[in-house]
Amino acid sequence: MPQSESQWANAFPWSLSYRWGHSALAVDFDLSGDTARLVCVRRPGDPEEGEADVLLPLVDVVLVGDGSGWSRSPFTGSALGERLRYRAHRSTFDAEDGPGVRWHRLVVESRDPESGVTAFGEFTSPDGVCVLRSRVRLRNEGDASVTVRSVGSLLLGGLPSPDEVTVFQGRDEWLADGRLTMGALECRADARTWLWQIESASRGVWEVGEAAGRTYLALGGLAPHEHEEGVALEPGAEFTSGWVALALGTGFDGALGELTAYRRAVRRPRRLGVGPGAS
């Protein structure tokens, strides 16, 4: 059943967890600590993979001069990612006047008290389709300019361990790094498959890696090689990463079927300012 519209919720760092989605998609968040974390993205009835000791921050941002923490990856292990403090979240369900699919929308807000950077994790999903669409919006609410070196549009940890999964990727010699802006991850034990596409031609990076013995997936966003000097944000300025989409299914064909349904939903008519690409 669609979730009813909710207002901004106050943070309860000692107890709050949150499940968002619809009949075809379940997305679990851990808001019980200071830093918001994405626990798992799954179909209702699938195993819940996330564990507290392997979860990554919901948003991970590297600022120039701020340090990159434990990881050599441009998308994980940043100092700022662990400093982000959950502030609020808001979910809505968009009704449409004419033909088309209705969309579930969620925004999770976090803030770094040291730099003043506020991060908005923005998620959407068409009702009844097992696809999560995600991007990150950053706003400099501090008093000084900051320079963003990297940020991912979606960061999901706690997936099956690397020796349990197979990664699929295509090659395209027309692209700078030779990789297509799509890929897939399949669990060999039960054929659960995560299939993704990057929806920004200029930000087509993605990464599969290991953290705490589990697999993580980092999609899209801003990577260091795209802007060697980073993206400067003056006080009050914003930067928004490109959209990425993550589809789930049994086997590659099952996930591809969900992604195809999602693509059709994106192309259907919708009211101005309401659809998935609305700012």
Outline of the structure:
By secondary structure, this protein is mainly beta.
> If helices are DSSP runs of H or I spanning 4 or more residues, what is the number of helices?
2
- What share of the residues does DSSP label as strand, in percent? 35-45%
- Predict the CATH topology of the domain at 17-158 and 219-243 and 260-267: Beta-galactosidase, Chain A, domain 5
Number of DSSP-assigned strands: 18
CATH class descriptor name of the domain at 17-158 and 219-243 and 260-267: Mainly Beta
Give structural notes:
By secondary structure, the chain is mostly beta strands. It has a domain at 17-158 and 219-243 and 260-267: Distorted Sandwich (Beta-galactosidase, Chain A, domain 5), CATH 2.70.98.60. Helices cover 8% and strands 43% of the residues. The strands form 4 sheets. Strands 5, 6, 7, 8, 11, 12, 13, 17 and 18 form a 9-stranded antiparallel beta sheet that branches. Strands 1-2-3 form a 3-stranded antiparallel beta sheet, with no helix packed on it.
Secondary structure blueprint with pairings:
Blueprint (H helix, E strand, L loop, with lengths): L16 E6 L2 E6 L6 E6 L18 E3 L15 H5 L1 E10 L8 E9 L5 E10 L4 E10 L5 E6 L2 E6 L5 E7 L7 E9 L4 E7 L7 E6 L2 E6 L11 E3 L4 E3 L3 E7 H17 L12
Antiparallel strand pairs: 1-2, 2-3, 4-9, 5-6, 6-7, 7-8, 8-17, 8-18, 9-16, 10-15, 11-12, 12-13, 13-18, 14-15
